[in-house]
Design goal:
The protein is α+β, with helices and mostly antiparallel strands and 279 residues long. The protein folds into 2 domains: 11-77, Winged helix-like DNA-binding domain superfamily/Winged helix DNA-binding domain (Arc Repressor Mutant, subunit A, Orthogonal Bundle); 82-258, Beta-Lactamase (2-Layer Sandwich). Helices cover 45% and strands 15% of the residues. The protein contains 9 helices and 7 strands; from the N terminus they run H-H-H-E-E-H-H-E-E-H-H-H-E-E-E-H. Strand 1 (59-61) and strand 2 form a beta hairpin. Helix 1 packs across helix 3, helix 2 packs across helix 3 and helix 5 (82-101) packs antiparallel against helix 9. The radius of gyration is 22 Å and the shape is elongated.
Length: 279
C-alpha cells in the first residue's frame, strides 16, 4: 500500500493501529460489534485484529467479552492520565475486595508528607471500623506508610522520618529512647516490605488492630497506590501467610498488571525513586 508520498507501508498494521485508536477514543470497555462498526469491517475480521492486539498487550479482553486498553496500550495512550486510570481501577475493585476479605479496605495515594486515603470500602459487618481520611498517614507505624516508605530514596525517607519523629516527640508521645528504637525497627520493617511485597502492623498504631498493605506499581516500578485492609486482632490474623494477606497481595499485583506496571517481588535495598506528585 502506498501513501500520498508514494511510500509503501503495511496495510494490516495501519488497520490494527486504527482499531487500537478506536478503543482509545471510545474509552472504557467496548463490544466487538462497536469496534467492527467503527472500523468498517466484519466482526470476524475485527476479532482477528483484536486477537493480535491482545497478544501484543495493546488491548485486553475482560470476563464479559468486552475489549479495553491493554497494559502496553495503556502506557502508550495514557502516559499523562496513568494515575487517574490506576485510581479508577483500584476504587472499582475495592467493594469486591472488602467483601472477599470480610474486612474494611481502602486505597491510598501519596499526599504531602505521606500516603492519604482516597476511598474506603466498609466491611460487610453489623459494625465496622472506618479510618480517618483527612490526614496523611505516618510512615513508620502504618502499613500503608511503610509500603510507600520502602521505595523512597534514602535521603528523602530520612528527611520525612526525621520530621515525623520530631512531631511525635514534641507531642510527648515518644521519648528519645523510643524514637531511636523505632528508627532501628523501621529499617528492618522496610526491608521486609521490599522482600515480601507486603507491609503489616500488629497493634503498633492502635492497640488491638492489625493491618496489611500492598503496593501497586506503575511501569517505572514506582509505587503509585496502595491497597490496605485492617481489622480487630481477634478476627484479623497477623500471619504473612494468612488468607487476608495473600488476597491483598494478589489484588495489588493484579492491578499493577492491569495498568501496565512492573511487579517487584524483592529488593536488596531501597529504590532511588522520587515522591509521587499525585495526591
Amino acid at each position: 500500500m502506498a501513501n500520498m508520498n508514494g511510500q509503501r507501508g503495511i496495510q494490516s498494521l495501519e488497520v490494527g493501529v486504527r482499531l487500537f485508536q478506536a478503543v482509545d477514543r471510545l474509552g472504557g470497555s467496548v463490544t466487538l460489534g462497536q469496534l467492527a462498526k467503527l472500523s468498517g469491517m466484519p466482526p470476524s475480521k475485527a476479532h482477528r485484529y483484536c486477537v493480535s492486539l491482545i497478544r501484543t498487550g495493546l488491548l485486553q479482553r475482560d470476563g464479559r467479552g468486552l475489549y479495553g486498553m491493554g497494559p502496553f496500550g495503556f502506557q502508550l495512550a495514557h502516559a499523562v492520565t496513568s494515575f487517574e486510570h490506576a485510581r479508577a481501577l483500584a476504587i472499582a475493585a475495592l467493594p469486591r475486595l472488602a467483601h472477599d476479605l470480610g474486612e474494611t479496605a481502602f486505597v491510598s495515594a501519596w499526599g504531602d508528607t505521606g500516603p492519604r486515603i482516597l476511598h474506603v470500602a466498609d466491611a460487610d459487618k453489623p459494625i465496622s471500623i472506618r479510618p480517618n481520611t483527612r490526614h496523611d498517614l505516618p510512615l513508620h507505624n502504618s502499613a500503608t506508610g511503610r509500603v510507600f516508605a520502602a521505595y523512597l530514596a534514602p535521603t528523602q525517607l530520612e528527611s520525612l522520618l526525621a520530621t515525623e519523629f520530631q512531631q511525635f516527640r514534641q507531642a510527648g508521645k515518644l521519648s528519645a529512647g523510643e524514637i531511636a528504637a523505632r528508627r532501628r525497627a523501621v529499617t528492618r520493617q522496610l526491608a521486609d516490605v521490599r522482600r515480601r511485597g507486603l507491609a503489616r502492623t500488629v497493634g503498633e498504631r492502635y492497640a488491638g488492630l492489625n493491618s496489611f498493605s500492598a503496593p501497586i506499581f506503575d511501569h517505572n516500578g514506582r509505587v503509585v497506590l496502595a491497597l490496605t485492609s485492617f481489622g480487630l486482632a481477634a478476627s484479623f490474623p497477623s500471619s504473612w501467610e494468612s488468607r487476608i494477606a495473600q488476597a491483598l497481595h494478589s489484588a495489588a499485583a493484579e492491578l499493577t498488571l492491569k495498568i501496565g506496571g512492573e511487579l517487584r517481588k524483592s529488593e536488596n535495598g531501597p529504590r532511588k525513586t522520587t515522591v509521587p506528585k499525585q495526591a
